[in-house]
Structure formats: structure tokens, C-alpha cells
Specification:
Largest sheet: 5 strands, mixed
Shape: globular
Strand content: 25-35%
Radius of gyration: 17 Å
Oligomer: single chain
Order of helices and strands: HEEEEEEEEHEHH
Number of helices: 4
Number of strands: 9
């Protein structure tokens, strides 16, 4: 199981890898090291336009979330009912998922809009929940959900999404 320290190291690895990649693409980047609630970096193009970016890092290829950050959830007994999408605090937020490699050059990046992350997580969670009759088998009140590398493959190295915003 990951420790608090190893989680912080992974987070730091991801943020700095993304900052470096954006700088290679001639963007100015400011990092906030967890001090801003909804994003980790701001990238700024030569024209002064900026783009907030959320970075999520994994060492394993699976990223952990809570479904109630993306959709309203109610309960009928132990059955979870997934309702409407939660309004995003920053509608145009971009997310970079980093799969940190064990060695230099093995890192993988998946770049997409946070709204798309919301869609993927809700669809996956609803499908998984439906396959269990709407009731989580081990802990019915858990809101834990994940997104996997396989869900993100079509967004690999999609850096132009950020460039197009700037």
C-alpha cells in the first residue's frame, strides 16, 4: 500500500514531468505544489493566454477517485443511484494523467479535458454498478471509483489540446 510520502513523491514527479514537457513546447509554466484546490499548473503561451491544468499521477496505471466528485449519488437502501453530473468548478480545465515509468523515458502522458474525465468515470462506474445490481458487493456505501490507462489510450500525448487553448 502506498504511504503518504510515496504519494507525495508520485504527485511531485507527475507535476514536474508535465511542467518540463510544456516548457519544451515553449510554454511558461507555474507550479503550485498542491496549494490550489482545482489545478496544479498554469501554462501560458507567448500571447499571454493561460490554461489551468490538473495533473494526476500513477505508478500503476490506475487512478483513484470518488464518484461523488463527478455525479450526484443517492442511496435507496444499499443501492446506489447515480444522478446528474456535478457542475465543474473550472469548466475548461485540462487534465494530464501521468503514468510514471520506473526509468527515464518510460513515462506516459494522457491529455484531455476534465469534462471528458467526468464522462468516462460516470459511464464506467454506472456500468460496473449495473453489473452488480446497483449494490457494491463488499462495501455498499463506498464511492470509490477508478480510471485506467485503457480508458485513456486515445488521449495519449494529446499535447495539442493545451497548445490550441493558448
Amino acid at each position: 500500500m502506498a504511504t503518504g510520502r510515496s504519494n507525495q513523491v508520485a504527485k511531485q514527479i507527475g507535476e514536474y514531468l508535465v511542467a518540463c514537457e510544456l516548457a519544451r513546447r515553449d510554454l511558461l509554466v507555474a507550479t503550485f505544489s498542491g496549494n490550489v484546490p482545482d489545478f496544479d499548473l498554469i501554462a501560458t503561451g507567448s500571447g499571454g493566454v493561460s490554461c489551468p491544468i490538473q495533473v494526476k499521477t500513477s505508478m500503476s496505471g490506475t487512478w483513484q477517485f470518488s464518484i461523488n466528485k463527478f455525479a450526484d449519488v443517492t442511496f435507496e437502501g444499499n443501492r446506489q443511484i447515480i444522478g446528474n453530473k456535478i457542475k465543474l468548478p473550472i469548466p475548461q480545465l485540462i487534465c494530464v494523467f501521468v503514468l510514471a515509468g520506473k526509468k527515464y523515458g518510460e513515462d506516459q502522458f494522457f491529455v484531455l479535458e476534465w469534462a471528458k474525465v467526468q464522462d468516462i468515470i460516470i459511464i464506467n462506474y454506472k456500468g460496473w454498478l449495473d453489473s452488480h445490481g446497483g449494490i457494491r458487493p463488499k462495501k455498499p456505501d463506498s464511492l470509490h471509483c477508478t480510471i485506467s490507462k485503457s480508458d485513456l489510450l486515445s488521449y495519449q500525448d494529446n499535447w495539442e489540446l493545451i497548445g490550441n487553448r493558448l
